[in-house]
Amino acid sequence: MEKVKILVVEDEIIIADNICDTLDDLGYEALEPAINYSEAIERIEEEKPDIAILDIQLSGAKTGIDLAKKIKKNYNFPFIFLTSNADVRTVTEAKKVMPPAYLIKPFTKEELYTSIEIALYNHSSKTGQVIEDNLIVKDALFVKDKGVFSKLLFKDILYLKSAHVYVEIVLKDKQTQVLRISLNEIIEKMNEKFIRVHRGYIINLDYLEQIDNASLRINKVVIPIGKKYRENLLHKINLI
User: Fold this and answer.
1) pLDDT, tens digit, for every residue of 191-226?
2) Are residues 181 and 112 located together in one domain of the fold?
3) Long-range CB contact pairs, 138-146, < 8 A, 24+
4) Parent domain of 32
């Protein structure tokens, strides 16, 4: 699993470094902070963050609100506004871009953690991508791990296996993750690369190595094919 990547955009370097240190302590991956709009866009293009913390007042002509508009239009990931100025005008302008969360300086470690959780959850909720305590944002499943979200990229998932009221997610690095959910619930949230091949299995078609009458193979693991799923599987293969 990967850590949630967070970009901090703050023109006061000491504050930015303190926020990044706190994020690391909380179990997230803090990217190199940006101090202005242009730097932030470069970081976004290079690092592909999962969420950003944006100071509203930035050095330069463009503000954190301008950056939030750009993120919503071009990148579509959640962000948190950060400011020491809580006057009516600032709040009114910030509300126009509908931030999932809002932090007033100074803030506590607990408030930062809560804001990140809320921002990720609210962003996922807008598209119906919430599964119990777990979220789907972009092409990744965000799983609660030791109190914080950890990221499972769809491209790293080999297959999913039903285990009674749980689903075991098998990754290409041979690690596994267990969620309390059904295959029926999770298949609706995955992208088009994932297909049900058996009442107990969902596979990632990108890793399909071999198929015969009653089974298939992914990463040298033999997985059964259910009769009612076979036709759809063959149809999917023909489309790729």
Assistant:
1) 889 999 999 999 999 999 999 889 999 988 999 999
2) no
3) 138/50, 138/76, 138/77, 139/191, 140/50, 141/169, 141/189, 142/4, 142/50, 143/1, 143/177, 143/179, 145/1, 146/27
4) 2-125
